[in-house]
UniProtKB/TrEMBL annotation:
<dbReference type="Pfam" id="PF01607">
    <property type="entry name" value="CBM_14"/>
</dbReference>
<dbReference type="InterPro" id="IPR036508">
    <property type="entry name" value="Chitin-bd_dom_sf"/>
</dbReference>
<feature type="domain" description="Chitin-binding type-2">
    <location>
        <begin position="159"/>
        <end position="225"/>
    </location>
</feature>
<keyword id="KW-0732">Signal</keyword>
<dbReference type="InterPro" id="IPR002557">
    <property type="entry name" value="Chitin-bd_dom"/>
</dbReference>
<dbReference type="GO" id="GO:0005576">
    <property type="term" value="C:extracellular region"/>
</dbReference>
<feature type="signal peptide">
    <location>
        <begin position="1"/>
        <end position="19"/>
    </location>
</feature>
<feature type="domain" description="Chitin-binding type-2">
    <location>
        <begin position="99"/>
        <end position="154"/>
    </location>
</feature>
<keyword id="KW-0677">Repeat</keyword>
<keyword id="KW-0147">Chitin-binding</keyword>
<feature type="domain" description="Chitin-binding type-2">
    <location>
        <begin position="31"/>
        <end position="90"/>
    </location>
</feature>
<protein>
    <recommendedName>
        <fullName>Chitin-binding type-2 domain-containing protein</fullName>
    </recommendedName>
</protein>
<dbReference type="GO" id="GO:0008061">
    <property type="term" value="F:chitin binding"/>
</dbReference>
<keyword id="KW-1015">Disulfide bond</keyword>
<keyword id="KW-0325">Glycoprotein</keyword>
<dbReference type="InterPro" id="IPR051940">
    <property type="entry name" value="Chitin_bind-dev_reg"/>
</dbReference>
């Protein structure tokens, strides 16, 4: 496996062309239906993971890579998106083709750790870390607050236990008391239903111990930017 870092957060989904499509070309359509300029795709009648494509006047019948289905709105490869983002209805889909670490050749899958997940492309498994303080949720295929993921220990992931009693400036923000991060002055911890969540003040900001809010870093003299 290849290990890469970077949160998703929601993994969220920018179209990325991962490789060249595999296609059986039939030449230009006889009736001139394919525009001479531009690339267009439309759904196959019965197969969810197949589609038709026009490329600068040339017509082709395409097959999405295993684990992907046709979607011209939020593709991750050519005109294909992850199968869980599309309602295929009664259309057919080819069975999974697995490889080490990958149930399908393409997809996003849980790993053996709450804080990272596996992204598969062309059957190669890439272990990807969630952003610090988040955990992977298989239902949404994204990284979320760890207290929202069954079986994940938010205290262990965040490195903080919410106090039983809320005192001092923390009580000002009840029912979501906040606390300074023990090791990073540009972060803070907010307790939600007695579970810790890690937040960042953002670039150029730091947690001000006088107000318990994020402030310009120059107003927090004891904080050095990380």
């Amino acid at each position: 496996m290849i290990r890469i870092t970077g949160g998703i957060l929601f993994l969220f989904w920018t179209s990325v062309v991962i490789g060249a499509p595999q296609a059986d070309y039939y030449g230009s359509s006889e009736d001139g239906g394919c525009p001479e300029e531009g690339v267009f795709g439309w759904a196959h009648e019965t197969a969810c993971d197949q589609y038709y494509k026009c490329t600068n006047g040339t017509f082709s019948h395409e097959q999405c890579p295993n684990g992907l289905v046709f979607d011209d709105k939020n593709p991750v490869h050519d005109f294909c998106a992850y199968y869980w983002k599309v309602d295929c209805g009664k259309k057919t889909v080819e069975p999974p083709i697995s490889s080490p670490g990958c149930p399908y050749q393409f997809g996003i899958f849980p790993s053996d750790s709450c804080t990272h997940y596996i992204r598969c492309a062309w059957g190669e498994a890439n272990v990807t870390d969630c952003e610090e303080g988040l955990a992977y949720q298989d239902e949404s295929h994204s990284c979320v607050w760890p207290d929202e993921v069954k079986g994940c220990d938010s205290e262990a992931i965040v490195g903080f236990r919410c106090p039983d009693k809320i005192v001092g400036l923390s009580s000002k923000f009840y029912p979501f008391p906040r606390y300074p991060h023990p090791n990073n002055c540009q972060k803070l911890i907010v307790c939600v239903n007695e579970k810790p969540r890690l937040l960042n003040c953002g670039y150029g900001s730091a947690f001000n111990l006088d107000s318990y809010t994020c402030d310009a870093i120059e107003n927090v003299p004891d904080c050095k930017a990380y």
